[in-house]
Give the backbone structure.
Amino acid sequence: VISSAPVPMSTTNVMEIKGSESAGQSFHMMIASGPYTTTEDLSFDPLDVLLKEAEERKPDLLLLVGPFVDSADPQLANGDIGMTFDTLYAEKCQAMIARYCNTVGKQSKVVLVPSTRDLTHFPVFPQPPMEKFQDLEDQVLCLTNPSTLKVHGCGLVIGCCSQDILKHLAAAEISRAGGHASQTDRMNRLCSSIAGQASYYPLFPAAKGCFFDASLGGALDMPTTPDILVLPSDLAPFAKVVSLHQNSSEQTGADQSSFVCINPNRLTKGKSGGTFASVFVEGLNQEVEGAPDSAQVSHEAAKRSKVEIIRI
């Protein structure tokens, strides 16, 4: 991997922060990645458990990453489920999410990002957004895969890719480095190389099973380096502070060139439950206070964030 100059870290205008309804407030997000069913049944009980947990925690944002109806599920592989995949998604997954939205109200948003393993969605990567939820367009936001989302008022940019780029890079990587770079762990190095190349999938040819459409390669570009980069993977779950200068002698740690990379892993693993992530980000009160309205404030989310990996 040869990194070019990464795109700059995100900044926000002070007037934009002050003008937001949530200006200066802390931000809470929950992140989960499918599958949302065990291999024993299609009741979506793990998703129900997650949503009930979200009802208690009341996050500002619930990020749900596919697959929702998983092509790798052996129960779905033979197609003998008594209904179409679309009906299963609508009657189980969509219904549960709609019930959650009606329970918590509009103060909590839900974001859905598809996966190429979704049987109810276009399987070629990168992917368009899933179909909108009727009557809940203001509360449920369906994004592309990959996608970049900005949270106004909090000073936060979130990037997400459901393709298992960490696993694919780990399988393809050959690394030999001396000096400072040799002191970094493997996941930090992989996360840094992704942001360093300003691409959500900096691997070509793509890994087997990726179903990559090279004509849509521009959709993989990062418009800015995310403050929080969400990369669901089959690899062990983690949350790390990663520096864009991971492979240099420049300062590392939670500085202005750092971001948070999160792998929440999977909500289910075979017959058992898996993990999800809970993220707390403090507001930009001190940074905004006394600053002129025309100023640009660095997010420095790595200094303001706390991440928990929680097992269900």
User: Anything to note?
Assistant: The radius of gyration is 19 Å. The helical segments are 14-18, 45-57, 74-77, 85-104, 165-172, 186-196, 285-288, 301-304.
